[in-house]
Amino acid sequence: MPPAAQERLDRIEQVLEPQRLELLEHPVYAKIGDASALRTFMQYHVFAVWDFMSLLKALQLRLTCVQVPWLPTDNQLGRRLVNEIVLGEESDEDGEGGYSSHFELYQASMQQIGADSYLLDRFLQRLEQGRDVTASLYEADLPRSIVQFVTNTFDLIASDNLPAIASGFTYGREDLLPGVFQKIVQQVNTELSGSASKFIFYLQRHIELDGDHHGPMAHRLLSHLCGDDDDKWQAAEDAAVRSLEARRLLWNGMLEALA
């Protein structure tokens, strides 16, 4: 990566550091040491798992051709990076000899531990009926923190600002999640390892893929998209800040639900 691009990435990370530390030290992790609390956590967190795929697909739609007749796009590096990430997120190994999206892995984890998916089901049913995301969020009567989180994601997608979308994906997801999930693994492994084996597999898979592969690829993609354009880098920084704030509000909502 060119030194100038690395300096830009370093600047964003410096701006985000207080928010990252707050999320990595959030008190919600200490609250999920029993099965009941973990079920509640998962009922909220599954929405972040679901809308992650929409954020990724927004990148894929803009960087690759997903229509017929196929035509090559003009961003060869971008489509390589995003397609490689999609492969791992949408059809990863499931730990049982098959393949699954990470969302489906999470659903299986919820089923194993007995976490009720009624909040997610109400929301997805409305989407399947043709309602838009905003209407579905409110008609499903979801907790405010979930509505805020998903709304931030889809506002980012609707902006059609490719560097901003890539930054939300990079810093709000791929860069952040290995550290966050490591905190959760430590807590769940200590208290619930036997009854949450699928969840632990999901977390460890994300830690491995995001930390070693997808995270570096996302940084490279963001650098490639922003180039030496100051406005694009500023849009990327702003989107990253908003994404971490949305995560903080979601975590706070979980904490209130667990009180």
Please tell me about this protein's structure.
- The protein has 259 residues and is mainly alpha-helical.
- It has a single domain, classed as Heme oxygenase-like (Heme Oxygenase, Chain A), CATH 1.20.910.10.
- Helices cover 77% and strands 2% of the residues.
- The chain contains 11 helices and 2 strands; from the N terminus they run H-H-H-E-E-H-H-H-H-H-H-H-H.
- It has a two-stranded antiparallel ribbon with strand order 1-2.
- Helix 2 runs antiparallel to helix 3, helix 2 runs antiparallel to helix 8 and helix 8 (162-174) packs antiparallel against helix 10.
- The N and C termini lie far apart (46 Å).
Largest sheet: 2 strands, antiparallel
Number of strands: 2
Order of helical and strand elements? HHHEEHHHHHHHH
**Highest CATH level, the class:** Mainly Alpha
The CATH fourth-level homologous superfamily: Heme oxygenase-like
What is the first-to-last residue Cα distance? 46 Å
Protein name: Heme oxygenase
InterPro entries: DUF3050 (IPR024423), Haem_Oase-like_multi-hlx (IPR016084)
What's the helix and strand layout?
Layout: H1 3-24, H2 35-63, H3 76-90, E1 92-93, E2 99-100, H4 102-113, H5 118-128, H6 133-139, H7 144-158, H8 162-174, H9 177-192, H10 197-226, H11 230-258
Antiparallel strand pairs: 1-2
Helix pairs in contact: 1-11, 2-3, 2-4, 2-7, 2-8, 2-11, 3-10, 4-10, 5-6, 6-7, 7-11, 8-10, 8-11, 9-10
Pfam families: DUF3050 (PF11251)
InterPro entries: DUF3050, Haem_Oase-like_multi-hlx
Protein name: Heme oxygenase
